[in-house]
Design brief:
The protein has helices at residues 18-29, 43-53, 69-78, 94-102, 115-126, 134-151, 157-167, 172-179, 183-197, 202-211, and strands at 9-14, 34-40, 57-61, 84-89, 107-110. It is of the alpha/beta class. It folds into 2 domains: 9-147, Response regulator (Rossmann fold), CATH 3.40.50.2300; 157-211, Winged helix-like DNA-binding domain superfamily/Winged helix DNA-binding domain (Arc Repressor Mutant, subunit A, Orthogonal Bundle), CATH 1.10.10. The longest helix has 18 residues, at 134-151.
């Protein structure tokens, strides 16, 4: 059941496209629970207004002149703003959604969203419920898994063994003799470690492994 009593939710809108901005403004103002307190045309104006009027929810276009929506969200969050940021974007790439949420956005909607979906998303943000359409969830999970694999490359036992030998200063022939493998096989294992760590060269392997805490 929709709430019909209590203070209205104060909303800021920021979008550099006049037609879309006006359309969203009209839809939000038509709901008796919402009160649009400021309408902005770019990111810098939006950030200034957020700091000035402290709306409950800021509905931000992802791509705007000056600062994009994610930058506004991050800067406002770092300043201690209580405003909850909701990104509205034409871009649905996994990395874009992930970065926006990581930067402090409370939710992410596509510009294909129906008017009632935007209204409900604003209310959900105000109530403390994260907002992410089902069609974006799988992509976000994939992005999180991908980034986790980059941080934790999951080296095999053999790869860890060879990595430790590299760190001790052993040459490829010395490692091959120690683990009873052909030098060409050791080189293949080393290349796999390079690929997983995103580096090339023996020194870089060891340095990156130490940076990530894989090697003490």
């Amino acid at each position: 059941m929709n709430r019909t009593t209590g203070p209205r939710i104060r909303v800021l809108i920021a979008d550099d496209h006049p037609v879309y901005r006006h359309g969203v403004h009209r839809e939000l103002e038509a709901d008796e629970q919402l009160d649009v307190v400021r309408v902005c045309q770019d990111g810098k104006e939006a950030l200034s207004a957020i700091m000035e009027v402290a709306p409950d929810v800021a509905l931000l276009d992802h791509r705007m002149p000056g600062l994009d929506g994610a930058q506004v969200a991050r800067t406002a969050a770092e300043s201690g703003s209580p405003t909850r940021m909701l990104i509205l974007s034409a871009f649905t790439e996994n990395a874009t959604v992930y970065q926006a949420l990581r930067d402090g956005a409370w939710g992410y909607l596509t510009k294909e969203s129906e008017p009632h979906e935007i209204v409900q998303a604003v209310k959900a943000c105000h109530d403390g419920d994260p907002v992410l359409p089902t069609r974006l969830t799988a992509g976000l999970i994939s992005e999180i898994r991908s980034r986790t694999e980059i941080r934790d490359p999951r080296l095999t036992q053999r790869e860890m063994e060879i990595l430790k030998m590299l760190a001790s200063g052993m040459s490829t022939p010395e490692i091959a003799r120690a683990v009873y493998l052909a030098p060409s096989t050791v080189k293949t294992h080393i290349q796999h470690v390079c690929d997983k760590l995103g580096v090339s060269g023996r020194a870089a392997i060891v340095a990156e492994a130490m940076r990530r805490g894989i090697l003490d």
